[in-house]
Specification:
There is one protein chain. By secondary structure, this protein is of the alpha/beta class. The chain has 10 helices and 9 strands. A 7-stranded mixed β-sheet has the order 4-3-2-5-6-9-7. A two-stranded antiparallel ribbon has the order 1-8. Helix 3 (about 65-75) links the parallel strand 3 (about 55-60) and strand 4. Helix 4 (about 105-115) runs parallel beside helix 6.
Length: about 260
Amino acid sequence: MKHQARKRFGQNFLVDAGAIAAIVAAIRPAAGECLVEIGPGLGALTRPLLAAAGQMHAIEIDRDLAQSLRHEFGARLNLHENDVLRFDFAALGNRLRIIGNLPYNISTPLLFHLTDYVERILDIHVMLQKEVVERMVAAPGDSNYGRLSVMLQYRFDMEKLLDVPATAFEPAPKVESAVVRLLPLRPLPYAARDEGLFAQVVAAAFSQRRKTLRNSLRKFAAQADFDALGIAPTARAQELSVAQFVGLADRVATQPR
């Protein structure tokens, strides 16, 4: 019986052979690597990945799909029937190569979840809504540049690899998709003294994008802090680089309040 895509799991299955081949070519899987596929679905990427690697991990929440995947791939596929947002990637070891056609309804929280395991990750190749990928890789001053851009660019070097049209999926989503590569930055070029505080400053700055930083960050920083860092009083969040956000958070962390 044909599997019916389930909206609650955000299922849109990749079926286009050309797109599948392009994604696998970008990943370049090899035997002995620790591949981890998020949401293998009907196995479109799993088959060529397994053919190259011989063995791999996969995380699938849909019980029916999990049963089908076990039946087809057997012991070659170490299948974890779990909610990926709660999954402990540390249990899989180190040098993880994360792969997946991510459910668009959980893509942003999932990306933040993966950052918790960045020390164990070799690289990430994922397909997301094109709009999200454009936000991830946007530069300061770009209208797409925001909290997601800063928080991910703090930890990763990212590159958009290819666009994937809606027609490559079944059922076809109402949006275009894109594949992006994330490479953990080691060491971090700009390491915040207090990463929790850095995250709070970035979130507050972008919570009211139209306001100047002097206003949106009133509870964190005074005008003297902006002056010391050479940040104009009229500057807005989307104008600051990752390095400037780290500098601002570091000053907040070290100045008596």
